[in-house]
Amino acid sequence: MAEFKPTEHQHVRYNPLKDEWVLVSPHRCQRPWSGQTEADQDEQAPDPMNPLLPNAVRSNGQKNPNYKSTYVFPNDFPALLERVPEPPASENSLFRSAAAKGHCRVMCFHPDSTMTIPLMTVDEILAVIEQWVNQIVELGRRYTWVQIFENKGAVMGCSNPHPHCQIWASSFLPNEPRVKERTQKEYYLQHKRPMLADYLKQEMEKKERIVVQNAEWVALVPYWAVWPYETILLPINGRPQRLPDLTDEQKRCLAEIMKELTTRYDNLFKCSFPYSMGWHGAPTGPSKTTGDSPHWLLHGIYLPPLLRSATVKKFMVGYEMLAQSQRDLTPEQAAQKLRECDAVHYKCKK
């Protein structure tokens, strides 16, 4: 029997955070590609009628102020509403429904539509982080879950090429955090330590999957990553459970590592690298207090779709939809490729 080589032989890896497996098939990277390609993200010209611009009039007739930094407003087409009728009770357990109430907001990062996180200054990114904290504090008083997420690039379904994110607050705990609440609590009850704190300690010892690190944060490709260049942001010091738990130094270092990580993303294929990113922390709500969820460790997640180049993405279809997730290069290979990228953005080089 030949010796197992993770960069050549398919295998499965377990994700204890989500209680699921991912199939790793690195030999598939050798197959030729003649399928769909995407338009280069940098080819998109700014739209002077973009409704997210300062002073723009949105579709509902509301006019944006002449904002100079971040700007938050209620989503004009919200997926969640604060006032909706309760669904009728069902006597059949196979046809269950429940109330879904919430509030949706849009948050602009910067007034310039050509700007992205890797091109913004650290101070500008810090202003974004401070606003995220404000939103979690305000909406977290009323809602069980506050999901901050950014869809960057048309390939990720972003309808407005303007630096922005969305904030959806819900009366219920969505599927992803619901699973993470269970798995982290079970681990904590057994080991008396947070799962992600233990995981980070081992990753920092191995150094195989770390992309970039500073005094307060580590960005790494998780051992169980699904998307080709997926990364997770983890705090090194303390055990912050939610964004409002961060110290001033942690916030500034977070701004710095976000800039460096997304710069390496852009430099990988010399394009404005698309992704979906967001934050997972302990659930919120009126009964929640600081330190009440020791099993949680705040973490940021980047989920980029590109696989081979700026125009070839990873498709989650077929086996991925009907069986389980599958990836075409190992997390270690992905981390190495990102580490080898320049820390200076390719657009900023003379």
Written account of the structure:
It is a single chain. This protein has 350 residues and is of the alpha+beta class. The chain has helices spanning 122-140, 175-191, 195-206, 248-269, 319-322, 331-339; strands at residues 11-15, 20-24, 71-74, 102-108, 145-152, 164-170, 210-213, 217-220, 231-235, 275-280, 299-303, 325-327. Strand 7 (210-213) and strand 8 form a beta hairpin. The mean pLDDT is 92.
The proportion of residues in beta strands is 15-25%
Looking at the structure, what is the overall shape?
Answer: globular
The biggest beta sheet reads: 9 strands, antiparallel
Low-confidence stretches: none
Which structural class matches the secondary elements? alpha+beta
Q: How many beta strands in the DSSP annotation?
A: 12
Mean pLDDT across residues: 92
Strand order of the largest sheet: 3-4-6-5-10-11-9-8-7
Rg, nearest Å: 21 Å
DSSP summary: helix tally: 6
> What is the chain-wise order of helices and strands?
EEEEHEEHHEEEHEEHEH
CA distance, first residue to last residue: 53 Å
Helix content: 10-25%
Keywords:
three-stranded mixed sheet, 18% strand, 350 residues, nine-stranded antiparallel sheet, alpha+beta, globular
Write the layout of secondary structure elements.
Elements: E1 11-15, E2 20-24, E3 71-74, E4 102-108, H1 122-140, E5 145-152, E6 164-170, H2 175-191, H3 195-206, E7 210-213, E8 217-220, E9 231-235, H4 248-269, E10 275-280, E11 299-303, H5 319-322, E12 325-327, H6 331-339
Parallel strand pairs: 2-12
Antiparallel strand pairs: 1-2, 3-4, 4-6, 5-6, 5-10, 7-8, 8-9, 9-11, 10-11
Helix pairs in contact: 1-4
